[in-house]
Amino acid sequence: MIGILSFVGFTLLVALIAYLATKKTDERSSDGYFLGGRSLTAGVIAGSLLLTNLSTEQIVGLNGSAYESGLSVMAWETMAAIAMVLTAIFLLPRYLTGGLTTVPQFLASRFDVTTKTITSILFLTGYAVVLLPVVLYSGSVAISGMFDIPELLGVSESAAIWICVWGIGITGGIYAVFGGLKAVAVSDSINAIGLLIGGLMIPFFGLLAIGDGNVMGGIQILVESNPEKFKSMGSETDPVPFHTLFTGMMLVHMFYWGTNQQIIQRALAAKNLAEGQKGLLLAGFIKVLGPLLVVLPGLIAYHLFEGGLDKADSAYPMLVAEVLPLPLVGFFAAVLFGAILSSFNSVLNSSVTLYGVDIYKQHINPNASELEMVKNGKRFGLILAIAAMCIAPLIANAGTLFDYLQEVNGIYSIPILTVIFVGYTTKKVPAIAAKIGVISGSLLYIISQFILQPMVEDNGGTYPHYLDVMAVLFLLNTGIMLLIGKLKPRETPFELSYTKQVNIEPFKYVKQMGLGVCVLVIAIYVYFA
Q1: What's the distance, CA 519 to chain centroid?
Q2: C-alpha torsion sign, points 408, 413, 419, 422
Q3: Does the predicted TM-score (pTM) go above 0.85?
């Protein structure tokens, strides 16, 4: 009962603070609703970026990978820091110069409206079919298991999942649809603090258990007993071979942190360029420490359970049950709930933004007022939330499905990144090149991963790692677009115009601090090599 009370209390406190922080924001305008009035500061941006990224799939999944394969999987965390630095220095100044609300808006001015619409539909399809239902289902499994909802309410396991799905969905829907981006970002920032505290408790108590009450002793025993697990450079048979850090890994991170609407919308809402850059750099620095939350517990679990677990993905939940004192379970569950909620409401809010700005205003009602655009975006968000809540409980195997869908995301991630990269680095590549780039990129990836790879492997052959495939396709798509630009260039070179939405004076030390973050990442790899 104490656990449930602390869970409810912390969750309500976050909601109250988010409500008070957003009372004065004018959410009848598109800037007010979709971008929080372009008023977010560095701390809020950093907290929201981190918590939007972190959810049950990542906490459980990466620790499971670490349990199985060791420290090399930290690339999914540490390399993200470099991508954030590149976004802060290269992409964000251009986004804010153009006064963007959505990433596809740039494609309309650089290429044409059709390119923007195709990209927005790709984003919305990925969010609706992939992210929302999976986040809801996996989060519901975690909460149901932590509080033993079937026994508590006297219902079946499937009924408990339905209850949790709708509880998370309705709460997340209220934040995202009725509160707008600022409510999402403020609640994310508070939950991020809780997640850092709660997340660090797990390795702390785990190391105490290994070291018989001594954390430093626990670290020494862990490293000396399992030296093979503490190698930063993955072998060719590991989930993240070391060479992929220089091929597709950085491309995936650049798409996710630099062009993914769900993530970058926080930086687009910055009160000025300097605050946006500071927010990204702060998030990047903290991201370097991410392995403490999503890798170290997996290594501790490997030692404590002597590598004897049947399923690697059970490492984190079993470690929590093993080492966390009972009075802290409610607080940790509330923190985990915040992470689940953050991922759900962030995707939902970005979907509302993409629909309202890029679909409704552009194609359905071009004469719509700002208030009408916001209202119809909210209606779309409600429909999307209800659909996700209906689909989520039907997912039978979230872990396997999520891994599969992560690879499926490559169908649109690399083509979109390619088009945006070429759009900003060239001036004469025409609209037809962008459309061909998106379509050819998607088709070539589908042929590679879902036709050629099964054929090769069924015949006993080995197929390139999917991150290598992404790198090859990025270069190929870029080459196709540049060739079209050479043969049939735009009549007038593209010039990025300053819309004066926010001050674009850069943060004075952005390059120095960015370099510092990159050096820190390299130092970690060298130390654990």
Answers
A1: 23
A2: negative
A3: no
Name the domain boundary from 374, 395, 416: 395
Q: Considering the domain boundaries, does residue 452 fall inside one?
A: yes
The full DSSP string for 488-507 is: S--SS---PPP--SSB-PPP
| 364 lies in the same domain as 417 | no
The DSSP bridge partners found for residue 464 are: none
Task: Provide the domain count of the chain.
Answer: 2
Regions of the chain short of the pLDDT cut 70: 1-4, 6-7, 10-11, 14-15, 17-37, 57, 175-189, 191-192, 396-406
| Residues 435 and 356 reside in one and the same domain | no
β-sheet bridge partners, residue 272? 503
Amino acid at 474: F
Domain extent, residue 194, equals: 2-17+26-395
**HEC assignment per residue over 301-362:** HHHHCCCCCCCHHHHHHHHHHHHCCHHHHHHHHHHHHHHHHHHHHHHHHHHHHHHHHHHHHH
Task: Tell me the two tokens of residue 442.
Answer: 């998607």
* C-alpha span between 240 and 223 (Å, rounded): 21
Nearest-angstrom CA–CA distance, 290 and 79: 11
pLDDT at 521: 95
Q: Which residues, 6+ apart, have CB-to-CB distance to 386 below 8 Å?
A: 169
**386 plus 401 within the same structural domain:** no
| CATH number, domain containing residue 118 | 1.20.1730.10
CA distance 468 to 247: 6
Q: Indicate if 363 and 400 belong to the same structural domain.
A: no
Does residue 100 sit in helix, strand or coil? coil
Joined tokens for residue 487: 């043969």
Rounded alpha-carbon distances, angstroms, from residue 173 to 19, 354, 502: 14, 16, 29
Mind listing the pLDDT tens digit for each residue in 254-286? Answer: 999 999 877 888 888 899 999 999 999 999 999
Closest CA to 473 of 506, 449, 453: 449
431 and 467 fall within a common domain: yes
